Amino acid sequence: MTHSVSLKPHNTFGLDHTCRELIAVKTTGELISCCLALYQAKEPMLLLGSGSNVIFCDDFEGTVVLVQTRGIEVATIEGYHLLSVAAGEDWHELICFCLEQGIAGLENLALVPGKVGAAPIQNIGAYGVELNDICDWVEYLDLSSGRLIRLNAPDCQFAYRDSIFKQQLLGSAVITQVGFKLAKAWQPKLDYGPLKALKNTNVTPKNVFDCICQTRMAKLPDPKTMGNAGSFFKNPVITNEQFSVLVDKFPSMVGYPQGMIHTKLAAGWLIEAAGLKGVQIGGAAVHKNQALVLINKDDATSDDILALAKHIVDCVESLFGVKLEAEPRLIAATGERSL
Ligand code: NAP
Q1: Which of 161, 249, 258, 326 is the 20 to 30 A CA-CA neighbour of 167?
Q2: Do domains 72-215 and 225-337 have the same CATH topology?
Q3: pTM (two decimals)
Q4: How many beta carbons lie within 10 A of that of residue 148, not counting itself?
Q5: CATH 3.30.465.10: does it fit domain 72-215?
Q6: Which of 50, 52, 163, 231 is an active site residue?
């Protein structure tokens, strides 16, 4: 345990805030006892995997718990591989492990940063696959009772970048393990962007994995060289009527059907169309290859990022009448805040 620790190495945006204490936990038992002790002491607590989806807006006046638990168990039943994975396992390394074992189904989510335990919270998704497509169950520590509870996927209230862990269970659950159910008969999902080129070929899970890795590496900045937190905004969902009004005015606007009555807009398109690609406030900038990503270009402070994010929200709203929402979690002195 250390005191007043820099969080700079623990967030991919590279923000130089501190926390009062930082505890790294290596086993599920340690994770449980540490979180229960902090909860009972009413100490502000933040669970952190690899810090790839957080923006520290201030010094954190509490304890950060780094989840470093490990363990992947594989079982098989008829037609399926079943995986039970510790919360602290790295997401991308899990996919590599599965491919080595001949287990497919996760490859569209290659190179999504973060740990396995964080994946259900915002129901990570990329290139046509969302966590809820492959999740079997989520086990969490209920802080108020001290019990471990296993929720089957349908009870996790998974939705677009959302789950019960961001709603009713916010602040009261610590995810310890995630279960996956992956069909032995692989069905490739090739409808998104560059994957379409693999249709009508003898495609393998490794082909999909390689295609996703190449695309992401070409478009998205590597946090090791350029601080960032991935997509900074969710893709807004509007009604089909709103979309037809907008597309009359902006014929090249991108929209994808979302159920029967909604259309999902591409937030990156809106930001680029508002002329904001490359715009910089202080040390924070809109990435020149991908307008959806904000970067730490030049020793950005959290105020720079928040000012840039608010500027983007205001410009997009005044041009299109659509309000963007931040995707990363914004962490203030004692807990989460909004933009
Ligand atoms: P893109 O190809 O520039 O497309 C922009 C948006 O259009 C995407 O965000 C995607 O929405 C949507 N889209 C594209 N093809 C679609 C299709 N066939 N059907 C329905 N919707 C479609 O996307 P990008 O910004 O480079 O991102 C590629 C993928 O990586 C996306 O799925 C994106 O969500 C994902 N991604 C996720 C995170 C995260 O979870 N934090 C971070 C970075 C990128 P959706 O976002 O709804 O898929």
Answers
A1: 258
A2: no
A3: 0.94
A4: 14
A5: yes
A6: 231
Alpha carbon of 126 to ligand 1 centroid (Å): 6
- Spatial distance between the Cα atoms of 326 and 233, rounded to a whole number of angstroms: 4
**Which alpha helices (H) appear in 199-255, and where do they start and end?**
205-219, 240-249
Domains of the chain by residue range: 5-67, 72-215, 225-337
Check whether domain 5-67 has CATH 3.30.43.10, yes or no: yes
299 Cβ neighbours under 8 A, 6+ residues apart: 283
Which mutation among 53, 160, 256, 263 tests ligand 1's pocket best, with the greatest number of atoms within 8 A of CB?
A: 256
Q: Measure the CA–CA gap between 220 and 292, rounded to whole angstroms.
A: 10
Let me know how many helices (H) and strands (E) the chain has, helices first.
6, 21
Instruction: Single out the catalytic residue among 33, 161, 172, 336.
Output: 161
Q: What is the tens place of the pLDDT at every residue in 60-104?
A: 999 999 999 999 999 999 999 999 999 999 999 999 999 999 999
CATH topology classification for 225-337: 3.90.78
